[in-house]
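Box 3.1 A note on notation
Throughout this textbook, protein chains are presented in two layers. The first layer is the amino acid sequence; the second is a token string describing backbone geometry. Keep the layers aligned when reading.
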Amino acid sequence: MRLCYKAFFPVATTISQVVQTAGSQLPMNSSDLNLNDAELFAYLDEMLSVERTSSIEQLLRSHPELRVRLAELMQRRDQGGHTIGEIWRRHRLSCPARSQLGSFLLGVASPEQADYIQFHLEEVGCRVCQANLADLQASQSSDGTQQQQRQRRYFESSAGLLRPGQND
């Protein structure tokens, strides 16, 4: 899901109108509120932690110059900018594969791989990988209960066959 500029600029019909109208009224400062472009791109891609996303949303509500800057970044990205960083983020090249997350969850990943995955989940705070890991944990716990139920049904269905003297 992408952020819609109309939530912040309901009168404007296009991003370029947002930049032209709001940009002409407000001075731009490249160090607005200590947010860099990479962090704003991560916000647009929903790659930040919930807490950080919430704080940026509050800043956007209270600082019109930041909304203008965000609109400019959205316009620049939508025009097809292809930097290495954008490609890296868009294709999630630093994210471990789901099978690697599964190995991490089972505790069979190499120490280097486990360290990287832990860093990626905790320090980078990749929400996509956190969601993948949570899904794997949920499926692992449901698989365990299904296996126990299956074993119980096998035992119950064959309990009569295991009693001595009844099958003679």
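Residues 1-32 have pLDDT under 50 and may be disordered. The helical segments are 15-25, 37-44, 50-62, 64-78, 84-90, 98-106, 111-124, 127-162.
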